[in-house]
């Protein structure tokens, strides 16, 4: 009888160039192995199948969860670590299929052949990606929308975004948001009168909703303006900010979003929420029809974004973590904002407040300044050990890409900035491009 920790029977998954066929072979072989153990329920069948797929990567569940919470969780802190570990160790029976799906998605986003001692020929990342998407579709088909399925889909969307599969990522997160609305996650509101378990669950649901909204707008930065509508609405500015569960105190309520001064007291996740709100304002402003009103509004947003960025950078003290995600979102927004100004005034002959040339010069100087800032950011991926690169949000790669685009548009630079940014891009591509 097969063991849950036994890898799937050896098959020549690499004998075909098609990752779709390799994925089908992996699924059929792992399923055949599971059937030999005579599982009694759908939950046990899926759980054992997921364990076999994980073992095919040369890892165990403990390896995956440790790497996930050390790295990926920093930039999408939607899963409560205490609740996850409680569910992992306290199941008297195989966990629900939706929880098994979470494990597989965590395996996907943390896996790279160089992170394990496993023979890299055993399972490539493309096959694992297609396998995970296939199981996600199956489990979604016979389960009602719920927290775990939404979280699993959000992890997949983050993986697709990191691999620059922007269209796929936006489609995935849009689906998750629709499921989140159906699950009423947008209404989750932990209150001080709740018991501990209810408070933790409501908090995780609220954090997951905020995480999806932030993820959607982060992805939207890489889409052509007006190409598609956003599926979610950003919570109102007076809404409760999300919190890191490890630090949450049930009888205290996080700051609302409205006063910008609260940024200095917000957690890293709270700063992500504030950056999300500002990106949403930017997207709305770009859609304004009156050109002069749009320019004035963009100018005001420029000041706000820079102010909030300075506060968050001061609060983080240069440390890496969830603050990096908020910083990356704001810097990406500033690149979009000034590129929009340049694009707009290049088609105008007159402007109300300043001449088109003055607007243009101001924005080019701003982009030069942001590019220098991004050079400082690029030091981290260039100096970090490769095994630690998951502690940096994938959005850093898109910020670096925006800086390189500006350098190329302005004729290049000879001070070494371009070379350092290109080196950082190569490091991110080496980590993530294998899933393309």
Automatic annotation (TrEMBL):
GO terms for molecular function: DNA-binding transcription factor activity, RNA polymerase II-specific; RNA polymerase II cis-regulatory region sequence-specific DNA binding; zinc ion binding. GO terms for cellular component: nucleus. InterPro entries: Fungal_SecMet_Regulators, XnlR_reg_dom. Residues 67-218 form the Xylanolytic transcriptional activator regulatory domain. The keyword Cytoplasm does not apply. Signal peptide: none annotated. Keywords: Nucleus, Transcription, Transcription regulation. It holds the Pfam family Fungal_trans. GO terms for biological process: DNA-templated transcription; positive regulation of transcription from RNA polymerase II promoter by galactose. PANTHER family: REGULATORY PROTEIN GAL4 (PTHR47424), ZN(II)2CYS6 TRANSCRIPTION FACTOR (EUROFUNG) (PTHR47424:SF5). This is Xylanolytic transcriptional activator regulatory domain-containing protein. It comes from Penicillium angulare. The lineage of its organism: Eukaryota, Fungi, Dikarya, Ascomycota, Pezizomycotina.
